[in-house]
Amino acid sequence: MDRSRTSSRRRGLAVVGALAVAVVASSCSGGAVGRPAAATVDGVEISQAEVQDLVEANQAFYQQAIDNGLDTTGDLASALADTEGVAPGTVSQTGAGDALNSLIVTEVLHQELERMDALPDDALLQEVRTSLETDAGGAEELATYDDRFVEFTIRTEALQRAYRQVLADEANADVAQPTAEEREARILELYQTVKADRPLCLNVILVATEGEAADALARVQGGEAFADVAADVSIEPQSAAAGGFVGCTDYAAPADAFGADLEGAAVGDLQGPLPADTGTGETQYVVIEVAGTDGPTIDQVRGQLEAAVDSESAATDPTTVDITPKLLELLGDADITVDPRYGTWNPDTFDIDPPDAPEDPGTTTTTLPVLDPNALPAN
Known about the structure:
Helix content is 50%, strand content 12%. It has 2 domains: 3-174 and 317-375, no CATH class; 199-295, Roll (Chitinase A, domain 3). The two termini are 21 Å apart. The protein is elongated. By secondary structure, it is of the alpha+beta class. The longest helix has 27 residues, at 147-173.
């Protein structure tokens, strides 16, 4: 077997397996004539046929993963067995309830997006497919999975992305962009906080040995400008180019880093040589000059302040939106009924409570053919 194909297939199974936790049918068009619906959501039926498709798609994924030698711990076989009932062709009551619950949640999301005219378009569906192909190791690798499993995954992920975009758009509509004057006022406000929190500004010369640090200190004490000596001998390029300036901090930081007690120090005061642990595994040495005791100038930190102010009014990134709270609200408002053989919808837990007396397994071969998608491993 081609080891590269095996590697990409393993990676693909891991990705698709994680997504399968959320895999559910994307729309509910009604059940077969004469067969009661598994559930209804605001009058829309979730048919037993759709549940059957979900079962077969997910079971195909389990079996393929096992056949590909990925079940090294037996977890996949155990998960597959957990979906099966006592008699051949049946499933467990827990598996049936969990699968139907997932279908209900997705139908609620589908209806909300439909109401808002925000259902996934072809471009979004293709975007999700392309993402799956990339993660699976290519289109050919993705094609090795059960078609229904892939389509369920694509549709469900697209619904979630579409809803994240809706919520992000709503959040962004509520964010008022500041005027130039308001932005500058906010920058000045933040600047005062920075000055108070970081009053001690330092110039630092970093060298490899204590002797080099002593020589650098002697040059400064002899009248050379600290910035010139730093540019000449400091081994830290960024601060050397800035005349040794390393920024502003509180008084505890240099005490912790170098053992330097600068409380009460005045501008121009020097300390050193002092040992410095820079993370290289070897002790290096510094000479410190107090550059200021009133915090940084606004020009020294303006870039940071502008970035902070801009982030406060930045647009919400859809990928960071958690849809769970809003989805729970939608579930709470929905009119949901469940076939008693699956259990009872609990509006407090947003889940299906199992029936008091499970059906005889021998009679459920065609009425409860579902599996528990939550049993899927996140490989």
